[in-house]
Amino acid sequence: MTTTRERDQAVLVVSGGMDSCVLAYYYAAAGFDLHLLSFDYGQKHVKELEYAHKYIARLRERFAQGEQGLRVQHEILSLPIASLLPDSTCALLNDEEPMPYGHYSDESMKTTVVPYRNPNMLLQAATVAWGEGASVVAYAAHQGDHAIYPDCRPAFVNAFNAMLAAAMDGPAPIVQTPFLQFSKAQIARLGASLDVPFELTWSCYEGGRKGYGELHCGRCGTCVERRWSFAQAGLSDPTHYASEALDEDEGFHA
Ligand SMILES: [Zn+2]
Predict the structure, then answer these.
(1) Phi-psi region of 247 (alpha: psi -120 to 50; beta: other; left: phi over 0)
(2) Mean per-residue pLDDT, 104-118
């Protein structure tokens, strides 16, 4: 660590999505200064970064300009993941690849796996944490991610922390995943209790393309999961979806 801090700082990897937003509010409510990192990695739904700006502006009004006076920094960093994978068939990176519709844990959702996305992002975050003397790095992996996304599983988190400890002498930052065993409905409930502005978050993998504009498609894996999380949590969903029906056709297996 190169500096000593008066208050703990957390370096958070945040997308424009609701889980990331709840994560940021969770650490702010716990009294951490925040250094938030979002990434343009060549994703088709880069629109999510506009929404990251929106909810972080709201968070800043409440926690930075309010009584707590937390320090809140946000940066968007570029990662050349898409350009390192020019032949990728990943549906999040390749314009020609159709977005799979259905439930988040369906086999078809494996086309949305971006190789080594979280380790790439977390290593940037750990580097920032090292430089700023922050003890905590975190991201919003949750239980629903485990089936499809290997870099959201406990085994990955443990291995990554072992790597951080081995890669530098001295006290390494630790990756925390407070939602690792939460369902997305539990994250939604936690967010509601923290008065999180869900309407300022963006999940849809279509990213406003194909004429969706500011609407979520309502049918891609992350839209379906988002809709069910609010329904299961018993919360009203402020999201505007292009497809209003949520039924068996969308592959939700409750
Ligand atoms: Zn969608």
Answers:
(1) beta
(2) 90
